[in-house]
Amino acid sequence: MPRPRCCRRVAGEPVCKFFKPAGVPASSLEEVVLSIDEFEAIRLADLEGLYHEQAAESMSVSRQTFGRIVEAARGKIARVLVEGLALRIEGGVIEMAEQRTFRCQQCQHTWSVPFGTGRPVGCPECKSKSIYRSEDERGTERTGQGCRRNLCRRPQ
Ligand SMILES: [Zn+2]
Predict the structure, then answer these.
(1) How many Å is the Cα radius of gyration of the chain?
(2) pLDDT at 117
(3) Which residues on adjacent β-strands are paired with residue 86?
(4) Domains in the chain, start-ordered, CATH in brackets?
(5) What distance in Å separates the CA atoms of residue 107 and residue 19, rounded to the nearest whole number?
(6) Measuring CA to CA, how many Å separate 13 from each of 35, 109, 132?
(7) How far, in Å, from the CA of 154 to the mean position of ligand 1?
(8) d(CA 54, CA 44)
(9) Rounded Cα–Cα distance for residues 66 and 90 (Å)
(10) How far does the centroid of ligand 1 lie from the alpha carbon of residue 130, in Å?
């Protein structure tokens, strides 16, 4: 299934979707909305410290588009901090990166890796090579075809 070019790929949902200054009721605050692609741009550029080229590739957008997204995001966050506003993170034309979940047969450790990073060589906990693809992975509902295939392989 080809990825639609319009979608901006993001690694996941924000941990917290609403921020506000302490001691001020939300109802009396102006709210700034940061889209999830803008949030992802901040995460990649300012937290992970990626170059725009790498970050753009990660989000499946051009470097120019990434530059516009991250500038818009920084402008919004700066305004929230300076003017003491509330910040809500939601929306945007996005596609969640598929997560593949693996499980270790030795220690039962379960972990996820984003789509496109290759199959892990072994368990990150005990280094065992006896790992298998777990079926209860995040993101499968969003990729209908893959989901149905995985369900067919589910061991009973
Ligand atoms: Zn293990």
Answers:
(1) 19
(2) 65
(3) 31
(4) 8-95 (1.10.10), 98-152 (2.20.28.10)
(5) 39
(6) 11, 23, 26
(7) 21
(8) 9
(9) 18
(10) 8
